[in-house]
Amino acid sequence: MKTLLPSLLAVLLTACAATPQKPAVDKNSLYQRLGGMPAIETVVDASIRHIHGDLRINIFFENTDIPDLRRLLVEQICAAAGGPCTYTGRSMEEAHSGMNLTDKDFDIFVEDLIAAMNEVQVPAPLQQELLALFGPMRPQVVGQ
């Protein structure tokens, strides 16, 4: 029994160390300041409503699996804002390949996102931080 206990303890400790852990979320992260997952889901839901109702760009989403789009947008915002999520979707280039989106299309999407954030009362400084995370994606989306 005396030799079995240290071996068993070593196996258990190794198993615990190998178990993936959720990354710690910085309490000052944008994710936390936005309000965590519930707030991100609220923003995404409002954004999808605005995009769906926007005749200027909703055609780009007519063959889209909306529940999957929602899941991916939540993951993407959560991860980019410093939350515990991992984005599992395709690269932006891959996801938008063949769509030939223009700068105007991208700007309309951003307008809809801002309208959604205003609707759910995300403070302007947090909106700017969130938009700053996604602005650099423009070249990965436009012209693909």
Automatic annotation (TrEMBL):
- Cofactor(s) recorded in Swiss-Prot or TrEMBL: heme
Q: Which UniProt keywords apply?
A: Heme, Iron, Metal-binding, Oxygen transport, Signal, Transport
The record's listing under InterPro entries reads: Globin-like_sf (IPR009050), Globin/Proto (IPR012292), Hemoglobin_trunc (IPR001486), Hemoglobin_trunc_I (IPR016339)
Q: Where is the signal peptide?
A: 1-17
Q: To which protein family does this belong?
A: Belongs to the truncated hemoglobin family. Group I subfamily.
Protein name (database record): Group 1 truncated hemoglobin
